[in-house]
Specification:
Blueprint: H1 3-25, H2 28-32, H3 34-40, H4 47-74, H5 77-83, H6 85-95, H7 97-107, H8 112-119, H9 123-160, H10 164-210, H11 215-225, H12 248-258, H13 260-268, H14 275-289, H15 294-302, H16 312-320, H17 323-361, H18 367-391, H19 397-421, H20 426-446, H21 453-472, H22 479-492
Helix pairs in contact: 1-10, 1-17, 3-10, 4-5, 4-10, 4-13, 4-14, 4-15, 4-17, 6-12, 6-14, 7-13, 8-9, 9-10, 9-17, 9-18, 9-19, 9-20, 10-17, 10-18, 11-15, 12-19, 13-17, 15-16, 17-18, 19-20, 19-21, 20-21
Catalytic activity: L-proline(in) + Na(+)(in) = L-proline(out) + Na(+)(out)
Main location: membrane
Family: Belongs to the sodium:solute symporter (SSF) (TC 2.A.21) family.
Length: 493
Amino acid sequence: MDPYTIFNWGLLALTFVLLIVIGYLTSRYITKDSEGGFLVAGRSLGPFVAAGTIVATGFSGWGFIGSPGVTYKFGAIEVLGNFFFAPAMMIAVLYFARFLQSRALEMGSNTIPEYVAQSHGGGTMGRVLQGVAGIITILLLLVFLTSQIKAVGLLGAEWLDIELGTSATLMISVIIIYTMLGGLAAVAWTDTVMVCGMAVAAVLIMIQIFTSVDLTAWQSSLNSIDPELLNPTTGAHYGDSVGTVFLVLPYAFLFSAVLPYMAIRFLAMKPGIKFHKVGVYVAILGALLSLIPIVGLYMRMQFPELEDPDRAMPMYLEHFMHPAIQGLITLFILFAMKSTANSLLHTVASATSHDLRLALFGEHHSDHGALTINRIAVVILGIVGLLMMLYAPPFMLSWLGILGSGTLMASMIGPVFISTFWQGSGWGALTAMIVGFCTSGYMMLFMEVGWLIGPLTGCAVSSACYVGVSLLTDRTRTGAETDATNLTGTSST
């Protein structure tokens, strides 16, 4: 191996040790409350850690690999679209997280499917809702997890000069270890370390770009290649109209507020947390990471004939960064990909070991027994995700990720988002999940409607079903209200 490859292996070994140590240290949250500690970090996340894990998971590898590639192909419209994620996440923190956290804390919800069940009355219908929500979460996030494992495996293989299978196995193994040790607390703290590295990478990249190019010459060069790059007349991959890019804002908001692997962060925050502090940190970190797609425009000027746009970032690092800095930034990009992969793995394992268990058996194991089941689920589902990646047919990483996350968002919008402000019935929640799943999934798989139209249409139809069916059926009181009514009745008697 050449010296820089040895350097890369050394960096990787040091970070693996760091991540596993964090996993070990955060296991103390589990000892205080075995299942709650594993599932929601003992509700211990402070403002900076909460913001760090939200931003790291939200931007992920898409921010460093996918978005520069899309910007290379379609131009500045993707830079604008990517910038909407930071304000959308901040809005979700400031104007939604408090409501979700307070209701979940009152009911004792430890997962989003459990929140859906408890907020719609519990009992037999609650078990059905928790089971259906858990199954949908597992199916769709396993699809997403497969794409993330492949993405991190591909980048690691190129960086370390090893085979894809070896790289993917190495990366998912360390994720399994620290997630199994510390649960959501380990995921959140490792995400925070990762997002700091991602922010440093963004600053280094922007310094290199803007100190090496004349802006006027840059603009002239891009206009000579294709005037659509800076002055688009369509929404490109977002839709026919330029205005469709603004759909990214509601999409990103719902992405942050509804998806189980994102919304679980709100449940894990400390009671009484200052949400405005979380919002400020989210805005700063998100704004830094929103600059990354500019790499695509820079590379379109420098190398206008790349056959594969997704090679924009790797080619940029290879040609414009010192090998040592290239290795460091590649490590940070791996961090970005891992931050989503570990969140997906934790959420899928929680849905399997907690939600399906309660839906099927309706009983709690001992704390020790439940924790053992949680940890076994992490190992098994991590291996399943790896095998799915190794034996799946070729697929487009970005599209597969949106298929999983967008369809899950359409399934959950009614029972998670709308129910926080307007309580529907159990039948409304069940109908909304099934209709959202089918609508978004069908449009993504069988219709040419762009990447956002399918999930957002699914969200609209699912929301209408939630409200409409709830109005036609008796809206079920929450578990807390039911308990209060029973207690009052008992006292009167």
